[in-house]
Amino acid sequence: MAVSLHDFEDDEAELSEINMVPLIDVMLVMLIIFMITVPVLTQRVPVDLPRATAATDIQEPDRISIAVDAEGKVFWNDEPIDAMSLQLRLEDAARQEPQPELHIRGDRKAEYESVLQVMAAAQRAGVQKLGFVTLPGDAEPVTPSANPDDDPATGQPAESPAPYVGQEGSSAD
Q1: 66-80, 104-118, 135-149: which has the minimum mean pLDDT?
Q2: For 72-100, how does the pLDDT look when each residue is reduced to its tens digit (9 = 90+)?
Q3: For residue 147, what are the CA distances in angstroms to 142, 144, 165?
């Protein structure tokens, strides 16, 4: 293989630059194509649509609040209820159309089993919309207001008040 030495000042030397003219030509052709096709794509056929005056019939489903206090007692819309009555009411609610939303409010000190029993009863009854009511994570727990009959030394109630069911916060469906 022979090696030839060229003088770099020679006019016959090869150019090592990229020829930009073909690239610019391609870019301009593409620009023209886009300028022609975009207005065609954005034009629509004008259609005069008919007007309808039908009223929407959206019914908001009822909301049922079931609370479980710290002792495991169950409340249906803030009324105490036993397990058999709970199951019958849940079955009646599951047959309604539209089916009501079931909001479970469990006391933070309630046993997991007592809340789970309410959920199982709702599942057996066929309730489809079930949610848990909680307080926001950074909120302080809501406590009942101070009672003047409380023991001043300990701050504890003199006698046991009615069970505190809690306050509704946000619901997760």
Answers
A1: 135-149
A2: 899 999 899 998 999 999 999 999 888 88
A3: 15, 9, 17
Rounded Cα distance between 153 and 156, Å, is 8
Q: Which domains does the chain have, with CATH numbers?
A: 63-137+164-172 (3.30.420.270)
Whether residue 172 contacts residue 131, with contact meaning beta carbons closer than 8 Å, is answered with yes
3-state SS of the chain: helix, strand, coil percent to 5?
Answer: 30, 15, 55
The Cα–Cα gap between 111 and 68 comes to 9
Indicate the residue type of 27. Answer: M
* Spatial CA neighbour of 125 closest among 83, 90, 81, 86: 90
- Contact between residue 127 and residue 89 where contact means Cβ atoms under 8 Å apart: no
Query: What string of DSSP letters covers 118-131?
Result: HHHHHHHHT---EE
